[in-house]
Amino acid sequence: MVFYMAEPLTISLDAMGGDHGPEVVLAGANISLSRHPEMRFRIYGDSSQIETELQKFPKLIAQSVVCHTDVAVPMDAKPSQALRSGRRVSSMWQAIEAVKNGEASAAISAGNTGALMAMSRFCLKMLPDINMDRPAIAAFWPTVTSECIVMDVGANVGADTTQLVDFALMGSAMARSLYGVERPKVGLLNIGEEEVKGLDEIKEAHVILRDSSFPMDYIGFVEGHKIGHDIANVVVCEGFSGNIALKTAEGTAKQVGEYVRSAINSSLISKIGALIARGAFQVLKEKMDPRNLNGGIFLGLNGIVIKSHGGMDAYGFANAIDVGYDMAKAEVVTLIKHDLELFHHENKKA
Amino acid sequence: MVFYMAEPLTISLDAMGGDHGPEVVLAGANISLSRHPEMRFRIYGDSSQIETELQKFPKLIAQSVVCHTDVAVPMDAKPSQALRSGRRVSSMWQAIEAVKNGEASAAISAGNTGALMAMSRFCLKMLPDINMDRPAIAAFWPTVTSECIVMDVGANVGADTTQLVDFALMGSAMARSLYGVERPKVGLLNIGEEEVKGLDEIKEAHVILRDSSFPMDYIGFVEGHKIGHDIANVVVCEGFSGNIALKTAEGTAKQVGEYVRSAINSSLISKIGALIARGAFQVLKEKMDPRNLNGGIFLGLNGIVIKSHGGMDAYGFANAIDVGYDMAKAEVVTLIKHDLELFHHENKKA
Asked: CB 3.0–4.6 Å: which of A57, A103, A349, B40 could bond A98 by disulfide?
């Protein structure tokens, strides 16, 4: 049984994941702790490395339990390989298992995505009323004035109709509990707004969502250029196109950032102007900082697992911890479970 | 027979397409004429409307033949409907037919995309050695220092392996003739760079392209965030994800533009700085102007058809005309035909 309400919340950390291992993970935990001083940690990995880093953060020491593991999952291991050699014994597995055992409310890892997904699924199991055999990955997407949830961004390539509907249900539950919106605006990513366009799965999911009584405000199809323009709280897509969309947006934002830099550096007078307006550029830089929205959320599991980007620094990792913390605090999994049960029960009756 | 080499080149225009009809089409033609003073036009549509607009552009009058048509294809007509009521008699059809008859080297329309596609296919026919029953749409994608070709951006949803390979061949021919690159860098859009990831069609196309002797430098999988970062001349994708990528990039660029504007307007001092650096912002604005890369190229047809965005102004429409002009001048269709024949011939032998 998982105790989502355990107070104060404990977060389990895979200290060995990511490009930088314990150094970034512990510094990240320390940043997150400064924002949520009551938070507690269970930290899994090589205890000598962890203890060395931990010495830098006296407050973190007081709130943490270090659990030694001998095995770290390599960043380039195949999921099946990782599962074979890392099951039960690796820092990644044990961080997830802490969630299963109720010792932690969410697990955070910057490690190998495929391995984290395989282990999460194997250890925590999928929720009973779900049509997927692996979790979907939800991401926060910055919008002009706020943010929205986009899912799946890469786990379920070629999701079918019922999976798309489940994504919509899960995304909606997430938006309700995280954003406090009673009826979140939910849309389906498609290549046109007309009902005749797109893939059959999407058109079928559209009909189900349109005619449903789900606690959401279903807004129909959303095209790629509108994701960031505040028309939806949740944009649902199959994993392939969701991943393409997410990465294309990241690449484009970076590209425009380079245009801005190069335009400003093109003359002395532009540089002077930019120096005067540096406050504005600082705001812009913060707004576009990819670290702010770090943290891919695995949805559909019996528990919370958050994937931090492998290359993140401590600030970015802290944000992934915060996502796990917020998800646990808002009891998102309980709500998802409830919604899925209700829907699949109603569906069976019909 | 189509005379791609006809000198001076004649371009056929559907004057009735787009949100603004003849007003924008003729003003656009006039801009394009100022860049290529030898160009000639065949202009199809309501002759009284066309003649009125044409009076504004004395040089254009001298280079144009106006061909009256009674029917204009509505922007919201279904392709089958448009074909039924507009075949032979509409401005859109006749502009395409001019290419078929050798009276023009490329047709440009800002009209209904589905109708333009159906009519192009019906009138010009697909090239003999091609595995598609409708043209692919190629788009120019701005990169940090230059541009690349991305295709298909929306015509062939769920393209199969052989279609993806044909896209690669056509895109490569286009890059060779337009950019003068001997062996264009060609990549396949995917959700990871590893060979194990992605859809089966993409993985199979990857193997064919990797092992082929095509006149291209095949670079493997390209992820969404790298499209705009100058790693490929051609990025090949299936129509659904290509459209999602293109529109997401457009939306993100616009979104970042709004961040820049709002950051600058946030204080008086920022406004002053921006005023001083206004030259830089002008450069930035031009760099990000979507009109510069207007023009979706229909590939796989026995002739050149360019789709201008329906909402474009004269400057944007002129750029779509220029794309048609450049494609005709570079004899892209002849090269594509040659490459496809060669490949499919070799393939049969093997």
From this structure: A103
